[in-house]
Design a protein that fits this description.
It is a single chain. It contains eleven helices and no strands. α3 crosses α8. The longest helix has about 30 residues.
């Protein structure tokens, strides 16, 4: 992306959000993440042998398409008091932020409920729970994009949702660095192409194969799974909010290029 002088300087509110985005980008992974990743590694390796990369890509793309279909209703317009996504896009960033917060709040309620229902500890509920968790998080990402006036019908935008999910769930410094680099590349190239690259796919495979270890803990799985699902979707929703804040700022000339994690 060619860095130019912004067409219009950011307002005080927009400048605050720019600082918040920069802080989010420099956030370090949780201290427990390396330990959790080591514990999950055998299960992840086994899962990748059972379900190879092409099958994982196909399944994730199918879930993403399903999530896109689920947000094609008037929920966002009704809660925004707006007649179209174009009208939402013409509103202030503060307006869209408030709408995104409503979207995230609604999504977290759904994620908690799905986590409780699929956390009974049986193999069947785990097999259902993994795609359900991913579907709920992707649905939330799609809907947050609408809060900023963006349509998910464009092919490139649809694939971008999976990259946002990978960015939200990167648990090591290396994963997060690569996810941010990929995200910045997507911004610079105007979201061209909807294929998930290898780095993003590796993160998403780890989520699919590694995040359900607690689901077999008797007596604790329902509460743990409800909490884990809520936390998972919250990270996805927050990442989507910051991503679309940045895209909103870029598209309106408030910033010259993507925001550095300083």
């Amino acid at each position: 992306m060619k860095h130019l002088i912004p067409a219009m300087p950011p307002s005080h509110y927009e400048a605050e959000q720019i600082r918040a985005i920069a802080a989010w980008k420099r956030r370090k992974p949780h201290l427990a993440s390396p330990l959790l990743n080591r514990a999950r590694r055998p299960l992840v390796r086994l899962g990748r042998k059972i379900i190879p990369a092409p099958a994982s890509r196909f399944a994730l793309d199918a879930l993403n398409k399903m999530a896109e279909q689920l947000v094609r209703d008037d929920w966002i317009l009704r809660h925004g008091g707006i007649r179209s996504l174009e009208e939402i896009g013409a509103q202030s960033l503060e307006f869209s932020d408030r709408l995104a917060d409503k979207v995230i709040e609604e999504g977290l309620k759904l994620a908690t409920g799905v986590g409780a229902v699929t956390g009974t500890g049986s193999l069947g509920t785990v097999l259902v729970g993994v795609p359900a968790s991913l579907g709920v998080a992707l649905r939330l990402i799609h809907r947050v994009s609408q809060a900023y006036g963006y349509s998910t019908e464009r092919t490139g935008d649809r694939g971008f949702m999976l990259h946002i999910l990978a960015l939200a769930t990167a648990e090591t410094a290396e994963e997060r660095t690569r996810a941010l680099e990929n995200y910045h590349w997507q911004l610079e190239h105007h979201l061209v192409g909807d294929a998930v690259n290898d780095a993003a796919l590796a993160v998403l495979q780890r989520i699919v194969f590694g995040r359900k270890l607690a689901s077999f803990v008797p007596g604790l799985s329902v509460a743990l799974n409800a909490y884990a699902n809520r936390s998972f979707s919250r990270r996805a929703g927050l990442a989507a909010k910051h991503v679309y804040q940045e895209r909103w700022l870029l598209d309106r000339g408030r910033i010259a290029g993507w925001i550095a994690p300083t």
